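Practice problem: DoxX family protein
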Amino acid sequence: MHNLAGLLVLFFLAITFLQSGYDKFTDFQGNLNWLKGHFAGTFFDGKVALALRTLLVLELIAGLLCTVGIVEIFVNGGTTFGKYGAVLSCITLLMLLLGQRVAKDYDGARTIAIYFITAVFGVFLFQ
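Answer key — structure tokens:
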């Protein structure tokens, strides 16, 4: 099957970001309260709500682009939306990585690095 690896990466990223965005949307206050403590004493202190809203929007857009990319591959073999979804996924993950590093949550940062490798592989596949 053509673009099987790309499809698998897009499914992975779509699931990751749509679920994460959904969680942030449905439990915004819970996430906000936890993150305020997580970033207390950092330069994100006082900016957590804006950062969380920004990440929510980027995650949902990345997940939707990956989903449209899956459909595009099945419909006409195109990879434009998949490429944009993978690139936006990388940008979003870099933002999350920055936050984890600033908060000195090195285990969380390590986890994000694993997701980032998958997203970069997606960008590579759709070049």
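Discussion: The chain has a mean pLDDT of 96. Students who identified this feature from the tokens alone can consider the problem solved.
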